[in-house]
Specification:
Largest sheet: 7 strands, antiparallel
Number of domains: 4
Oligomer: single chain
CATH topology of the largest domain: Uridine Diphospho-n-acetylenolpyruvylglucosamine Reductase, domain 3
Radius of gyration: 22 Å
Helix content: 25-40%
Strand content: 15-25%
Structural class: alpha+beta
Number of strands: 18
């Protein structure tokens, strides 16, 4: 039975929101899990917000009853970000899906937080513009801001941190604030926009975003290149970046990941370490860039190129890459997804991946390697029996060794997925004494610890 304080909070929320507020078991269960292996944790109720004012009113009511608040987009996060570990209200922003303004001449747009990246790019298609940050999942852009998302295009276009001009958010006291603006740069005061990006819902609820846009390239070419060895594939990536070859995407899949993708997506790629690449530019420019990479790849054991110049062929290729995690878990019936997320300086990439591959081979874990290697970020995707304590222990030990390896190389425990529940211990190892000022910021903006409590670090 819900205690009296919870019942009072839900009753007041129902009075304000009516049918927008649900405490049904089905809705609560759907909002208490994400794509990770973490145990679900249900909220006590779900609000389907339709405006920033809805969010502000809900936050004020929750504050009056010490009722936790957990923002929710579409549930594609990978570190337990949406788990209601202390109960509370899940604020579902998916109905806030309006594209409010597109400024073609200034290459920017303003959207509500529930707009997904595919929805935005479909809307933009006839303008000649697109938004490039592509984490794979069709996540909401509010969620992508909250987790500082990245993806396959980051090597050329950057991450959410580089592509957000301004944010509207509701703080823990119910105040609606706007950070940044539409100017391309500013030296005015603290950068609160970037403070909210990557805050994972612990400092406020993001409700509106102003984004940078880019012109759709005149020509796009994608290619696939298998390599004799994993080391050769990684070394070719390092050489590509160091020589300044302007790739838009450069993705690595090891031989087991290729096998999984072949089975899942009905492909027939050689089961070897493979790079997926994409070049953006003019017809002449991308032909020249592709030939330069082909010559470079041969030096590192690169094999026969596969080409994809038609839109539908490129879409199929990148869909296979984006479905890598699902392809891996399909190799083991009933398994759950656990994916690591380290990022290291590009010069350390080969050593980190090869040592990790050797470490993985010494375990009994089923895992593949895939990553956005153009910026030093790679993932080990594990198909895990989460009900086997020995396997979970082996997974945790492997993940700890991987993160310690990355930190020793000057890297980070998370390149794009965020901290959430899964990496709280590692954040302290990475940032040490900086956790104290992070806690002070949290305390200043959320003194009751109601905003997504139990994530990133312990508040106490």
């Amino acid at each position: 039975m819900k205690n009296r304080a919870v019942k009072k909070a839900i009753a007041e929320l129902k009075q304000r929101f009516g049918a927008q507020l649900s405490d049904s078991q089905g809705d609560c269960e759907a909002h208490g899990r994400d794509e990770s292996f973490h145990e679900p944790a249900w909220p006590d109720a779900v609000l389907f917000a339709q405006s920033t004012e809805d969010v502000a009113d809900a936050v004020k009511i929750c504050g009056a009853h010490d009722f936790p608040i957990i923002p929710f987009g579409v549930g594609t996060s990978l570190e337990g970000h949406v788990m209601a570990v202390q109960g509370g209200l899940s604020i579902d922003l998916s109905r806030m899906d309006q594209i409010l303004e597109v400024n073609v001449s200034d290459l920017d747009c303003t959207i509500q937080a529930g707009v997904t990246r595919k929805q935005l790019n479909t809307y933009l298609r006839d303008t000649g513009l697109f938004f490039p940050v592509d984490p794979g999942a069709d996540a909401t852009l509010g969620g992508m801001c909250a987790t500082a998302a990245s993806g396959t295009n980051a090597v050329r276009y950057g991450t959410m941190r580089e592509n957000v001009l301004g944010i509207e958010a509701v703080l823990a006291n119910g105040e609606i604030v706007s950070t940044g603006g539409r100017a391309r740069k500013s030296a005015a005061g603290y950068d609160l926009t970037r403070l909210l990006i990557g805050s994972e819902g612990t400092l406020g609820v993001i409700t509106q975003i102003t984004l940078r846009l880019y012109g759709i390239p005149e020509a796009v070419s994608a290619c696939v290149c298998p390599f004799d060895t994993l080391n050769g594939a990684v070394e070719s990536v390092i050489a590509t970046i160091q020589m300044g070859l302007p790739v838009a995407r450069i993705e690595l899949l090891d031989e087991l990941q290729i096998r999984a993708c072949n089975q899942y997506a009905n492909l027939d790629l050689p089961e070897q370490p493979t790079l997926f690449l994409e070049f953006h530019g003019t017809e002449h420019g991308i032909t020249d860039d592709t030939m330069r990479f082909k010559d470079l790849a041969r030096e590192f054991g690169g094999g026969e190129f596969g080409w994809a110049t038609h839109q539908e062929d490129r879409n199929r290729l990148w869909a296979a890459r984006h479905d890598a995690a699902y392809a891996t878990t399909q190799m083991r019936a009933g398994s759950k997804l656990m994916t690591t997320d380290v990022c290291v300086p590009i010069s350390c990439l080969a050593a980190c991946i090869l040592e990790t591959k050797q470490d993985l081979d010494r375990t009994d874990l089923l895992g593949t390697i895939a990553g956005h290697v153009g910026d030093g970020n790679f993932h080990v995707i594990l198909a895990l029996d989460a009900d086997d304590p020995n396997e979970v222990e082996a997974m945790n030990a492997f993940n700890e060794r991987l993160i310690e390896r990355a930190l020793a190389m000057g890297g980070t425990c998370t390149g794009e997925h965020g901290i959430g529940l899964g990496k709280m211990d590692f954040l302290g190892r990475e940032h040490g004494d900086l956790i104290a000022p992070m806690r002070l910021i949290k305390q200043a903006l959320d003194p009751q610890n109601l905003m997504n409590p139990g994530k990133i670090f312990d508040f106490e």
